[in-house]
Amino acid sequence: MPLEVNKHVQRIRRYQPFDVDSAEMVYERADSAQSLFPVVTLDYLLQAIERPTTKTIVLTGDAGHGKTSLCASLLAKLEAGAEANSPEVRKAVFRELSEGGDAIRPISRTRTGRPLYVLRDLSDFSPQAGAHKLVELLDPPDEGVAIICANEGQLRKCVAEDDNSGSGGTGRAKVLVKTLTDGIIRGQVSAPDGAVTVINLNYQSVAADGDPNDGFIPWVLKQWTTTQWARWKPCETCDARDICPIRANRDELSDPTRGPQRRAAIREVFAAAERTGVVVTTRQALSVTSYMLTGGLSCEKVHVRYQRSHFDTSWQAPHLYHQALFGDRLTQQQRHSVPAFFALRRLDPGRVSRRQVDDQLDPDTAGRFAPVDPSSNLQKVRTTRDVEKQANRLRGLYAFLRRADFFNSDDNNDRFARMGLQAGDDFVSVQDNTRDLADTTVRDRFLKGLEAAQGIHRAGSNPDFFLLDPAFFTHRARAAVISRRVPSKGVQVVDQITQWRAEGSHAGVVPEMQDVVEWLNRAIYIRIPAVNSDQDAVSVEADLLRFELLTRWAAGLRSEVQHEAEIRGLSGSLAELANSSNKDEEIQVLVGNVMRKLMIDVGDKIRSVRA
Predict the structure, then answer these.
(1) SS3 for 481?
(2) For residues 456 and 445, what is the distance between their CA atoms, to the nearest angstrom?
(3) Which end of the chain is more exposed for a tag (fewer CB within 10 A), N or C?
(4) Exposed/middle/buried for 80, CB within 10 Å: 0-12, 13-18, 19+?
(5) What sign does the CA torsion over 320, 322, 326, 328 have?
(6) Binning pLDDT at 50, 70 and 90, where does residue 23 land?
């Protein structure tokens, strides 16, 4: 049998921007996986353009979320209906966008007959020209609808330019940034009059909540490994099939028994990365998944290895999917081109040592492509360099085994802990509507962590929360003035949607963002009652990484220098709670961990008593 080159593998490799086969990421304009995934934003757009009040829709967010692909899918749906996903329709639509995506003329019509204008990329304009274009598209000709694709930075620059009256600005475009801000604060996507809609695609998740096999990442893996069986047929007749890590990756991820579990574990890693505050765009997800599945190899590179030795199985280990996912073999420059790799490497289970995991790892059961066990090397260790080499090999072996076991294990009890996140399960439990509301464990730990961020370390479980005077938040001495004591009973820990509902309740606003994008709860909030009853509660936001830090600080970790920036951010949020209106001649002071009262007596004498 000959050595076969699989064209499906070549297509997958085009999503890797650091590879010569990527062809400048041409997939965005042709056979894009983004165009085929049934994203909920497309359904929302189809409804929004039919609303009589809608005039302008802005798709914003980081580059790579698929804004252009969304517009292409929308046009294909309007023009071809059920045939929207055929290759001919997609190519025709992308051609139309290339020629008419400047919003000078209508590119299509809504189902009710309104002209539809599409601005493919606001970054094609200077801030001055972009500002004029935004104002023009706030009121499209012939009562039409305009869709604008804009990176958030460029959108803000153009709006700021229009807000400058000295250079002829009108100030009308600031409604776009206001709607964007309302989306961040209250989860809104539309202005009160319904004329402007701004969809922040930075909330779009590649590992959405719901069924573990739902979401973009599981969908792509299924499409590339299980759905298109015929595309893998050349691998069945290739001479190098028995030593090919690409084929091994495909077989493991498409296995009828263990495949769904492994794909779900990959989704869990991406979801954890997004919960740590990282925005993983669709383009980045495609690049990482492509590299993971191919192991960074091509068919030709595998053939070269095969021709050197038909039976050598010592080189495949770093190219297996559970190793390639963390980009060990990529350079720093290559990782910078796909920043998601940095977030995934922070959650690498291969770097986390857990006795209950490591004691059960066995190199003999790691498969035919496992690295060589250093302990089986009969060569004597004579020098320090030999010792270092053997230690490095042993660390590499255990990293391989931990990663492989993470994706093969069906035990879901300590998934976050294996990624180095002890507080992960508590973080996710906050969004569980069926949780026991009488369980205050998460709330108490959150409050204790906030106290530790101020330098307060009290033992045991306490019924109240101490807030220092802002002057003592940093560099405090042995004693510090207590600005306020907050009873824990009135404090709540809520997820992002509940927080949005609370923020919009006074204005009668209902958050929509979770229904407009592929949604994943990425933050939790602690709501602390304000000083005055007529004021709103003060909310402190925490993503998974910040919550992990708070949890470790609550347990006694002290690292003020290393996390100085994080502590400053928390201090700024807590400063809103400080009670500056206290006119009593009694000051509460924390000396060490002992509360004392300072009272001014006759003759301006200060007396101290234990509180």
Answers:
(1) strand
(2) 13
(3) N
(4) middle
(5) negative
(6) very low
**CA distances (Å), origin 589, targets 443, 451, 598:** 25, 15, 7
Element (H, E) at 427: helix 424-429
Beta strands in 208-255 (DSSP E): none
CA distance 92 to 88: 6
Q: Which of 412, 432, 431 is nearest to 496 (CA)?
A: 431
Per DSSP, what are the bridge partners of residue 446?
none
Lookup result for tokens 């070549």: 10
CB 446 within 8 A of CB 493: yes
Residue 480 to residue 155: CA distance in whole angstroms: 45
The torsion defined by the Cα of 480, 482, 483 and 489, in degrees rounded to 10, comes to 140
* The model's pTM: 0.91
- List, in sequence order, every beta strand (DSSP E) within 395-500: 464-468, 479-487, 492-495
Q: Which residues pair with 595 in a beta bridge?
A: 590
Q: Are 133 and 125 in contact (CB under 8 A)?
A: yes
Q: Take residue 394 and report the two structure tokens written for it.
A: 């042993």
Distance CA 593, CA 398 (A): 43
pLDDT of residue 29: 41
Which two three-digit tokens encode residue 144?
Answer: 């039409």
Give the neighbor-by-neighbor strand order of the sheet with 108-109. Answer: 108-109, 115-119, 145-151, 56-61, 196-200
What is the rounded distance in angstroms from the CA atom of residue 267 to the CA atom of residue 210? Answer: 11
210 has a pLDDT exceeding 90: no
CA angle 338, 343, 347 (to 5 degrees): 140
How far apart (Å, rounded) are the C-alpha atoms in residues 600 and 611? 15
Give the chain's end-to-end CA distance (angstroms, integer).
87
Decide if pLDDT at 31 tops 50: no
The helix/strand/coil state of 424 is helix
| Percent of the chain whose predicted confidence (pLDDT) is above 90 | 59
- Total residue length of the chain: 611
Token code pair at residue 546: 């910040």
Which structure tokens are listed for 11? 């297509």
